Amino acid sequence: MSAPSFAPAIMKRPWLQRWIKPLSNWYTNAAGYRQLGLRADDLLPEENDVVHTALKRLQPQEAYDRVFRLRRAFQLSMSHQLLPKEEWTKPEDDHPYLTKYIEEIETEMAEREDLESMVISKRQSNANAGH
């Protein structure tokens, strides 16, 4: 589910970060989801089993806020309107709230897969002793 990220490599190089930051801000604003009051994690497709499980793990208030944001954005989209500028999602408010759950679930699934594919064999000395 998780996409590869260049962010760690960019963050290690201040000169590259200074060059990329204005470009990333422009791209985020051009995407338009903040103008509808959405956060980046609101755009993740719910049809994925991992995302569906992560949504179940959200705190009730966060889940309610997410549904509110999605319904409001849908209404705005249907009426071809944008929120007033003071109601747009601010960059400091656009933090990942679902990604940590998704990473946790992917780790659990990988661990479960490793445990299910494990082959257990007796040691030769125990097999000869009849244990």
Folded structure, characterized:
With 131 residues, the protein is mainly α. Helix content is 57%, strand content 0%. The protein is built from six helices and no strands. It is elongated and about 80 Å long. Its main location: mitochondrion. One of its GO terms (cellular component) is respiratory chain complex III. Belongs to the UQCRB/QCR7 family.
Q: How many distinct helices?
A: 6
Give the overall shape: elongated
Instruction: Characterize the biggest β-sheet.
Output: none
Q: What's the helix-strand series?
A: HHHHHH
In terms of DSSP E residues, the strand content is under 5%
Percent of residues in helices: 55-70%
Number of strands: 0
Which parts are unreliable, with pLDDT below 50 for 5 consecutive residues or more? none
Q: What does the average pLDDT come to?
A: 89
Structural class: mainly alpha
Report the span from N to C terminus: 44 Å
Rg on CA atoms, Å: 22 Å
Protein name: Complex III subunit 7
Subcellular location: Mitochondrion inner membrane
Main location: mitochondrion
Pfam families: UCR_14kD
Quick description:
With 131 residues, this protein is mostly helical. The protein has 6 helices and no strands.
Mind sketching the topology for me?
Layout: H1 7-11, H2 14-31, H3 49-57, H4 60-78, H5 99-116, H6 124-129
Helix pairs in contact: 3-5
